[in-house]
TrEMBL record:
Cited Pfam families: FAD_oxidored (PF12831)
Single Gene Ontology MF annotation: oxidoreductase activity
Protein name, UniProt field: FAD-dependent oxidoreductase
Gene3D superfamilies the record matches: FAD/NAD(P)-binding domain
Segments passing through the bilayer: none
Keyword field: 4Fe-4S, Iron, Iron-sulfur, Metal-binding, Oxidoreductase
InterPro entries in the cross-refs: FAD/NAD-bd_sf, HdrA-like
């Protein structure tokens, strides 16, 4: 049976215009906005929530996984927020835990200093199209629907929301069954220094042993000096871009948070209390665009290099089982390039997609999805927008050597850079 539909036609006031509209203020979006602004563009950043940093702050994913290339804006963030953790060379790998509250405040100030106009509580609703070219977006704001027009648009929503609405083909999850990685609500506990009474709500679970835990393992970090424990031990099946899945996940993940905290309070963390539960469940994987190039498992395992490299990483293949098993498929990698073409959506002009929803297979995205890589992709996307406007071409037509020059001017260093041509 066909789904019932309503037709919506509205005339919407244009609230603001810029050279570049960035949608989504996570790692990719923040870096895209900064990079665009540093290239001389007037930039607007629209963020659905009240904070920047994406999953890192909103979902309390407050640890950067190592990628083997601490460079560009990501390096700057480490230098300014976690100076003690900055490696001497770009080729270092660091795995620092950070305060999501500090990063949230830092990004507000950083974007303000860079001259980016940030609109909080502005949720992408639809793409404004001129034929097959994206010329802006309509957002649901605190004043109702408003349009924001831009010469170029970058989709950093993590879910490829802009691309999908503009008509770019999308795929999700594993080849075959389309299942995505599960969701996790990460939380914090704080050492009080004295025994506490474990608390378990009525409808929560009593976990007797490690094997009964949602991931069947312990996964937490206690790197911050103040006795903060960061816990990644809940797990809920589903695709975070689907209404029914996210509805279930928000309730189930919170139930698991109380249950895991209660387990930890009985198993080694007798002096710890729950101290922070973020406002939304963490979503690992939803939509991937169909781009000019699709990153594959073979690219990762063979350590492939590309002439149009825009980000480099050696983070492992890291797949939390999508089908309800308590396992995680982890396979180390020696390092690979992500090409610019993975951010170029097919069939639509005026739009780039940066961050975890680039064109990649389920296995490839499990590695490229981490925050440092998303910062790198965003930085390249912002610079690419400036190249396109300067050269008077659309995104696919830009000069890659000029893009690399611009990124180098912004402090980006590619290691094993034999494929990068100098201009
Ligand atoms: C549970 C979990 C654990 C993880 N562990 C780690 C880890 O240990 N280390 C690590 O480095 N990475 C980890 N990751 C991966 C990493 O956090 C994400 O893949 C990364 O943040 C993706 O960056 P992004 O910018 O593409 O998207 P996101 O971080 O998802 O940011 C997208 C932004 O767009 C906004 N947005 C969405 N829709 C709209 C809309 N319609 N309108 C306007 N704005 C919108 C969102 O509010 C958000 O701010 C983990 C992820 C999860 C979920």
């Amino acid at each position: 049976m066909d789904q019932a539909k309503v037709r919506m036609e509205r005339t919407v006031p244009v609230h603001d215009q810029a050279d570049l509209i960035v949608v989504g203020g996570g790692p990719a979006g923040c870096a895209a906005a900064i990079s665009g602004a540093r290239s001389g563009l007037k930039v607007i950043l629209l963020e659905h929530s009240g904070q920047l940093g994406g999953m890192g702050t909103l979902g309390n994913v407050s640890i950067f996984m190592g990628v083997g290339n601490v460079t560009g804006i990501y390096r700057e963030i480490i230098a300014e927020v976690l100076p003690d953790r900055l490696p001497d060379s770009h080729e270092g790998s660091i795995w620092p835990q950070y305060s999501p509250f500090v990063l949230r405040h830092y990004l507000n100030s950083k974007l303000e200093k860079e001259g980016v106009r940030v609109y909080y509580h502005a949720s992408f609703t639809s793409a404004v199209m001129d034929g097959d070219t994206v010329t802006g977006i309509v957002a649901n704001t605190r004043e109702g629907l408003r349009a924001f027009l831009g010469a170029k648009v970058i989709d950093c929503t993590g879910d490829a929301r802009v691309a999908q609405d503009a008509g770019v083909p999308i795929h999700s999850g594993r080849e075959g069954d389309g299942l995505t990685q599960p969701m996790t609500l990460m939380f914090m506990m704080q050492n009080t220094g004295k025994p506490v009474t474990p608390y378990l709500p009525e409808d929560a679970y009593y976990y007797e042993s490690m094997s009964e835990l949602p991931q069947g393992r312990h996964l937490y970090w206690e790197q911050n000096q103040d006795g903060t424990l960061l816990v990644n031990m809940t797990r809920v099946r589903g695709n975070g871009a689907k209404l029914e899945d996210i509805n279930h996940a928000e309730k189930e993940a919170l139930r698991q948070v109380f249950s895991v905290a209660h387990y930890l309070q009985r198993n080694g963390f007798e002096t710890y209390v729950l101290s922070h539960i973020p406002g939304q469940v963490g979503v690992r994987e939803t939509n991937q665009i169909e781009g000019r190039y699709t990153l594959t498992e073979d690219d990762l395992t063979s350590g492939r290099r590309f002439e149009d490299v825009v980000a480099q990483t050696n983070y492992e293949i890291d797949i939390h089982s999508p089908d309800g098993a308590k396992t995680t498929d982890e396979r180390s990698l020696s390092g690979y390039d992500i090409p610019y073409r993975c951010m170029l959506p097919t069939g639509v002009k005026g739009l780039l997609v940066a961050g975890r929803s680039i064109s990649a297979t389920h296995v490839a995205m499990s590695s490229m999805r981490v925050q440092a890589t998303c910062y790198a992709l965003g930085q390249a996307a912002g610079a690419a927008a400036a190249c396109a406007l300067e050269e008077g071409v659309d995104f696919p037509g830009i000069s890659i050597p000029k893009l690399h020059r611009r990124l180098a001017d912004q402090g980006v260093v590619f290691w094993k850079a034999e494929s990068v041509k100098q201009v």
